[in-house]
Amino acid sequence: QLQLVESGGGLVQPGGSLTLSCAVSGGTLDTYAISWFRQAPGKDREAVSCISKRGLQVYVTEVLRGRFTTSRDTVKNMVYLRMNSLKPEDSAVYSCAGDHFCSDIMDYWGAGTLVNVSS
Questions:
Q1: Which residues share a beta bridge with 94?
Q2: Which burial class, exposed, middle or buried, applies to 46 when counting CB atoms under 10 A from its CB (0-12, 13-18, 19+)?
Q3: pLDDT digits (tens, 9 = 90+) for 30-86
Q4: pLDDT average, residue stretch 82-99
């Protein structure tokens, strides 16, 4: 069974940067697509990014392109979310999720890591 553990969240000032990490175990990145989602208090969960299995396709939600990028390290079995020029509205719990295909419905989820963008 795929297991995912996020890290790297915290408090960051507006305009700052943060890199989130997702440690994947129980499967490889050539077998599973890994997505990032976020959910702010009182709001619906929204998709942020996805890297397809074998890394052939990389998606970032259009409104976040140019500020957010995602990447992976197949040796470490890690997926990263690099967030630049952070805004207060980026504050949310960020979760990584895995499944065989990129989708809004993923089978395996991490517990999430909190990102708070505030001065």
A1: 38, 113
A2: middle
A3: 999 999 999 999 999 999 999 999 888 999 999 999 999 999 999 999 999 999 999
A4: 98
CA-based torsion, 55, 116, 95, 29: positive or negative: positive
Contact 49, 36 (CB under 8 A): yes
Pull the structure tokens for residue 20.
């989130």
Dist CA 91 CA 117 (whole Å): 5
Q: Which residues pair with 60 in a beta bridge?
A: 49
| Angle, vertex CA 112, rays to CA 21 and CA 99, nearest 5 | 75
Q: Whole-angstrom Cα distance, residue 22 to residue 113? A: 10
**pLDDT score of 79:** 98
Phi, psi (deg, nearest 5) at residue 26: 85, 5
